[in-house]
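user: At home tonight, take the chain set out below, taking as long as you need, and be ready to discuss the fold:
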Amino acid sequence: MTAPVSVRGLTVRYGDVLALDDVSLTVPAGRVTGLIGMNGSGKSTLFKAVMGLVRPDRGSVSVQGADPGLARRNGRVGYVPQSEDVDWSFPVSVRDVVMMGRYGHQGVTRRARPADHAAVDDALRRVELADLADRQIGRLSGGQRKRAFVARGIAQGASIMLLDEPFAGVDKRSEATMVRLLRELADDGRTILVSTHDLQALPQLADEAVLLLRTVLFHGPVADALRPENLALTFGLDVLAGGEPAA
């Protein structure tokens, strides 16, 4: 059976900077995979590679057995970016953002049909934003903004969802809503890959975890990923005699 996301020996450089070094990883369907690493560890570069937005120096990436760029253009991959990557002053409503996920279904005219409106309405309901559909996207809270982009992926019909730090700057209530929503999407059979610094929420969120520091240090059960010695390697910490990471 073809893996939803398969990465083999992936190396990516930006000039003299080594962003990813011989990364191999298989991301399964129907599960939430947490991607853990400090800033600069290569998480965002890995997402870009899965979307076909960076050219590997070595290795390969396939998405459902196809070229990742083609899979993205065909709407199989949905992406929730970091907040700083979005111009929140742009004059579009929440509904407009979610409707962008339907563009691939609308042809060159991008004229919304009843099926498109129905898909958008359903996605807004699932992320609990139906009552804010006509609000300008920048007027939402941090958690609501993230949910709007998840709704875009749902409306798009993406079977693979990539979320880059979705809990950054989000209150605990919104975080809990997001965790529940991602678990539901995984139960629907979607492939969920989430980068996060929130280690406390990881056991409730993820089925498995990947520890990344330019290469894969660990991929397996969340409880094992959170062992002090594994976190110490991931975040460049020393380990005290008692087994706890030291700053």
About this structure: Residues 52 and 68 are 5 Å apart (CA to CA). The chain has a mean pLDDT of 89. The longest strand covers residues 17-27.
